[in-house]
Design brief:
The chain is 85% helix and 0% strand. The chain has one domain. Helix 1 runs antiparallel to helix 2 and helix 1 packs parallel to helix 3. The protein contains 5 helices and no strands. By secondary structure, the protein is mainly α.
């Protein structure tokens, strides 16, 4: 039950922060807010899990709170999918391609960057 509570708390904070960032940044036709939170979440999970593996000093509780809870609540695949559906519906295939490919490339790169940085902290 404690693990579920940790994930719940982290997820709540992550979701609230995602909402605030997306509400502030998503002011144009392109969903910059979702892109930013997803990429920041990828960077953070790379840092946290890389550090957890490297140091063995990050407890399972902190890993659940931050990686599973916070990053899980902070990032959003459902919004990403819905925004892509909106690009399809409007016929904007250029933004669809840029958003989809950019999200995947930047997201993967951010995870790898986080893992790399975690080697030095």
């Amino acid at each position: 039950m404690k693990n579920v509570l940790l994930v719940f708390l982290g997820g709540g904070f992550g979701s609230a922060l995602r909402y605030l960032i997306s509400k502030t940044i998503n002011t144009s036709q392109f969903p910059y807010g979702t892109l930013i939170v997803n990429c920041l979440g990828c960077l953070l999970i790379g840092l946290v899990l890389g550090y957890a593996v490297k140091s063995n000093t990050l407890s399972q509780n902190y890993t659940l709170l931050i990686a599973t809870g916070f990053c899980g609540g902070f990032t959003t695949f459902s919004s990403f999918a819905f925004e892509n559906q909106a690009f399809l519906k409007s016929g904007d295939f250029t933004l669809l391609a840029l958003y989809t490919i950019g999200s995947i490339i930047i997201g993967f790169s951010a995870v790898f960057l986080g893992l790399y940085i975690s080697k030095y902290i």
